[in-house]
Amino acid sequence: MNAQPQLGWIGLGNMGNPMSGRLLEAGYPVAVYNRSKDKEKALRTAGATTADSPAALVQQADVVFLMVSDDQAVRDLFTGPDGLLQAQASGKLLINMSTVSPGISEEMANLSQQKGHTYLDAPVSGSVKQAETGQLVIMVGGEEPAFQQAQPLFEHLGKLALHLGPTGSGNRAKLAINTLLGFYTQGLAETFLFAQQHGLKLEDMQTIIANGAMGNVFSKIKGEAIMAENYQAAFALKHLAKDLRLAKAEGLNTPLGEVVHDTFQQAEPTLGEEDVIAIMKHLQRD
Length: 286
Hints:
286 residues, alpha/beta, six-stranded parallel β-sheet, 13% strand, elongated
């Protein structure tokens, strides 16, 4: 990789916007594509160019990042009529940072190889604040040389990028860590609910957690959200429900895994657009 590869970014949601912005701030030329064109405005103002389609983007970029919602969105972006693999281009590095199934990564990696491209799955752990400050943890699956090629770029996006093995390894690690996120989220909500039911002040419970072995950044932020009844989505409940479905499809069948999967599936129809900690509201209703 030369010093200044042309980068492409697809998917300008809560995470994609600050992450692509960090690459711009680092001095890389970045072209963006998003189905909702209004989301491109802030990046254009920051100096990004835009492309009319994924196919147009991959023709001008050396490295293309994707961060989209699910398997179907990935398949459409790769194989749709104006998809990445329809362009007359080869030799590009395609980095899928979406939280999707290992199977879709294995499928897209194979198709990419047939077109002369290289594919990495590289989902992240962290939320919007970590994306803004470059403190994400990046879990990478794919070929080692491709990981080494991408590493200088990952350094602008996260505090740690770890190569875990062949294609799909990053996706499997992300499903594992988001299963733990499900445990933490439901556990914290149940702890607050139990305390509330027994007349304890939530502020006191938050202080106890913060000063004990169970205290962490997540419990601080989400505990404060519960006390403020602030359920505006930093990470929408519907996304964690989807991730737990993916984990279950990969074989998650442990006792806690079954419980947290079922709880989030039940909550998704009414609370899916709210933050994951809105699971507190679901538990209060039961």
